Amino acid sequence: MWKHFITDYLSFSKKERTGIIVLMSFIGFFIVIPFLYPFFIKSQPIDAKIFEKQIASLSIKQIDSTNQFKQPGEDGKYKESVYKLSDSQDEKVELFYFDPNTASNEELRKLGFREKTITTIKNFLSKRGKFYKSEDIGKIWGLHPDEVKRFIPFVQIKNLQVSHLSDGNEFKKKPLIASTHSMISIDINTADTTEFISLQGIGSKLSQRIINFRDKLGGFYSVEQVGETFGLPDSTFQKIKSQLIINNLAVKKININTADIELMKMHPYLRYVIGNAIVRYRLQHGNFSAVADIKKIVTITEDIFIKAAPYLTVEIQ
């Protein structure tokens, strides 16, 4: 009985024995390979100084977060709160009260503003921009949210002026009424992010989106186009519309007789569908003699033509 059992269940053919040997070889290989791994791939040495620097940076930030709302000393400086903006910045900086409208470059450096940020602030001020409240520094392009939170408690806008009273020789300080945003005019084809940020309701993200949209179009030919910017609420656009102007109407044009699909599909008013239709029509019927000829293409409606035509040409630029 046992002999038959062993013969039926524990005997293997030559192919089966070969398969078992191969399978066991694979299993043995994968068991051994983790032990051989260190001999072929050497681990990178760990520099303990990097971790010490990171721990020190976290400690500094923790101290700063617990002290940021304490009152300053007699000299107006907040000496308990010192921090580093980055690991690469070795110089410690101090927080003290400042007016972003009048602060010098040196004062901004002492506060910890980066050179690029200082340049952005000065460009904004040179173009008649103003900071009207402490929260306005959050609109500065390139300033991180944690830095904004750190600086806001120390922003003091000097908004008082002296005026003479008509009933005597007394003087009285009264709030200086900030000029409204409507007094600022922005050329939408040349304005940078700083100028757009000076408009009511436009922050750093929206200003960058407007410029990105302008670059993809090749320039604006109408103020209404700004309202097409992704994420720009119509209510905000209507508020700033009267402040937008165009002094430079030169837009970048695409030659529909030479442009390929890769170029045309990048334009917001053409994309792949319209660009592909123009290229296929040109291959079948030859070059266009006028931009208006693209209206012969079925997929190009009158609305599409009106929007895209200013960016198209049949002449060599």
Which class do the helix and strand fractions yield?
Answer: mainly alpha
Distance between the termini: 98 Å
Helix-strand sequence: HHHEEHHHEEEHHHEEHHHE
Largest sheet: 2 strands, antiparallel
Question: What is the topology, as strand order, of the major beta sheet?
Answer: 1-2
**Fraction of residues in helix:** 40-55%
The total count of strands amounts to 8
Q: What is the averaged pLDDT score?
A: 77
Tally of helical segments: 12
Low-confidence stretches: 59-91, 160-182
Strand coverage percent: 5-15%
Radius of gyration: 34 Å
Shape: flat
Number of structurally distinct domains: 3
Assembly type of the chains comes to: single chain
Please tell me about this protein's structure.
- This protein is mainly alpha-helical and 317 residues long.
- It has three domains: 53-158, no CATH class; 183-245, DNA polymerase, domain 1 (Orthogonal Bundle), CATH 1.10.150; 254-313, DNA polymerase, domain 1, CATH 1.10.150.
- 42% of the residues lie in helices and 9% in strands.
- It has twelve helices and eight strands.
- The chain has helices at residues 2-9, 14-40, 48-67, 105-111, 115-126, 145-151, 193-197, 204-217, 234-240, 261-264, 271-285, 302-308; strands at 77-83, 93-96, 160-164, 171-175, 186-187, 244-245, 254-255, 312-313.
- It has a two-stranded antiparallel sheet with strand order 1-2.
- A hairpin with a 6-residue loop joins β3 (160-164) and β4.
- The chain starts with a helix and ends with a strand.
